[in-house]
Amino acid sequence: MRRFTLIAIPYLWLFALFVVPFLIVVRISFSYYELSIPPYGPQLDLSTGWDGVKAFFAELNWDNYAFLTGDDLYWKAYLSSLKIALIATFLTLLVGFPIAYAMAKAAEEWRPMLMMLIILPFWTSFLIRVYAWIGILGTEGYLNQLMLGIGLIDAPLTILNTNVAVYIGIVYTYLPFMVLPIYAALEKMDDSLLEAAEDLGCTRTQAFWLVTAPLAKSGIIAGCFLVFIPSLGEFVIPSLLGGSDTLMIGKVLWEEFFSNRDWPVASTVAVILLLILIIPIILFQRNEQKQRETDG
Amino acid sequence: MRRFSWFNATSLTVGFVFLYLPMIILVIYSFNESRLVTVWAGFSTKWYAELMQNTAFLDAAWVTVKVGFWSSTLATILGTMAAYVMVRGGRFFGRTLFSGMVYAPLVMPEVITGLSLLLFFIAIDLDRGVLTIVLAHTTFSMCYVSVVVSSRLVSFDKSLEEAALDLGCTPFDAFRSVTLPIIAPSVIAGWLLAFTLSLDDLVIASFASGPSSTTLPIKIFSAVRLGVTPEINALSTIMIGIVTVGVITASLVMKRNVARQKADELRAAQG
């Protein structure tokens, strides 16, 4: 009986507050906009009991999906989110790999300290870390002042409110997610493998591509997914650092909901975003599974 | 050690400068006399004094701490239960759905979690306020807690629990006197993680909050949309300071506990 309670409590909690809300989103994505409170129809009428629930789920309306596929604003927003997330993931890999590599090569007594330094920013408020870049990247920001001061540029560059600022923001905030899995993969590497490769006539570069890169592969894949998946639906970074032409789907959903108050369309945007995310999520799970099997 | 070349040293230096410099600048400029945030005009702590007078921020901070405390406590209890069920629960009906529900919120975009919870609260006619934010935060942070706790549960020796059961403990006693002390560091780490996630969350809180329950991130977000202000710099510095002290203390305490536990286990093995 105790075992039953132990299972039932977290089970029911997650079911009621995760699965049920999500089913409601799916249902409302098939509703129509209506000037009422709440602003959609048909509405759930719990007073008639089970019949009310059945009636609520019976009447499906595909108009929002037709609207989203027909309107190129949404297409562009999805594509541009994918593009921004892909480029940002690649940039994070470029910045993160050398850090992870150097950490794995550092003396053993230094490693816990270096790990701590990588994780510490993760505990600091995400919002504040993004905010810090507003002051740096602005037209009169520290970066422009510095570059003007040393004579690198003649006129201030516009970086804030462009996609470049969004890339910097994503690389900065998601860097630990890239560094840690790569570091975990490289740390296990046996240095004698590299020595063996060099003894057998490899150059250092060849040894890197033949020995280090394959060993780091699972860490790189994990890191890329850990950066790509959350940045696809990112809201805070594009709305604080991006410009009016930065089109990201998280921002579109937010505005559809809070500014246009069109809840059915916002729900449809959410459902399609999730459908897009399912593919990378499944690939990520597979990579993790494979990794566990080779480790175990 | 063999290959710790200048290249590696440069990568680490550049990497850590990139990670820390923006926050260091923020901290330095919070002590700037001038309202113009990019021009240094001498040392001053006046923005901290001004912040202390700003009741809107103080109220929001109080709401945030309250939400953080309750949601992380609930999340720790539920998340530890979920971890125990996943690692030690054996087979039960709907196990796949259960682990799916534990992992899915981790990869769900915040905007979708927020939207779905808001539509749910409206559908069941629950007024939005502190309670709804606590419910929302508990739901996603319990999943993080269960990941942290289950990684510890997987790695520890199950025979210790079995020994307690053989010696006549009830399963609950065995959990309380054997399992819980061993997983305690990860439970504490889970609580801290849940607390930080709750303090940090803007998107889900924006959906789940009502007009009377603004949290600090919501307040900060609406202020920074208009640009950089010295008050926000001061507020950020305070938050960075708290986190730094907290994380360093927690890791020192944990290091000591792990060392003690290892020594105990070693002694037990020898004796």
Describe the model.
The complex is a heterodimer of chains A (296) and B (271). With 296 residues, chain A is mainly alpha-helical. Chain A is 76% helix and 1% strand. Chain A contains 13 helices and two strands, in the order αββαααααααααααα. In chain A, a hairpin with a 6-residue loop joins strand 1 and strand 2 (40-41). The longest helix of chain A has 34 residues, at 72-105. The two termini of chain A are 34 Å apart. Chain B has eleven helices and no strands. The two termini of chain B are 38 Å apart. In chain B, helix 2 (46-53) packs across helix 11 (230-270), helix 3 (55-88) packs parallel to helix 6 (130-155) and helix 3 runs antiparallel to helix 8 (171-200). Chain B is globular and about 70 Å long. Chain B has a domain at 54-227: Orthogonal Bundle (MetI-like fold). By secondary structure, chain B is mainly α. At the A-B interface, helix 1, helix 4, helix 5, helix 6 and helix 8 of A face helix 1, helix 3, helix 4, helix 5 and helix 6 of B. Chain A: Belongs to the binding-protein-dependent transport system permease family. CysTW subfamily. Chain A: It is a multi-pass membrane protein. Chain A: The chain crosses the membrane at residues 12-33, 84-102, 114-134, 164-186, 207-229, 263-284.
Number of E strands of chain A: 2
How would you sum up the major sheet of chain A? 2 strands, antiparallel
Quaternary structure classification:
heterodimer
End-to-end separation of chain A in angstroms reads 34 Å
What proportion of the residues of chain B form beta strands (DSSP E)? under 5%
What is the approximate shape of chain B? globular
Contiguous runs where pLDDT drops below 50 for at least 5 residues of chain A: none
Order of helices and strands of chain A: HEEHHHHHHHHHHHH
Q: Quick one: CATH superfamily of the domain at 54-227 in chain B?
A: MetI-like
**Element string of chain B (H = helix, E = strand):** HHHHHHHHHHH
Mean pLDDT of chain A: 87
For this structure, the CATH topology of the domain at 54-227 in chain B is MetI-like fold
CATH architecture of the domain at 54-227 in chain B: Orthogonal Bundle
CATH class of the largest domain in chain A: Mainly Alpha
Shape of chain A: globular
Number of helices of chain B: 11
Distance between the termini of chain B: 38 Å
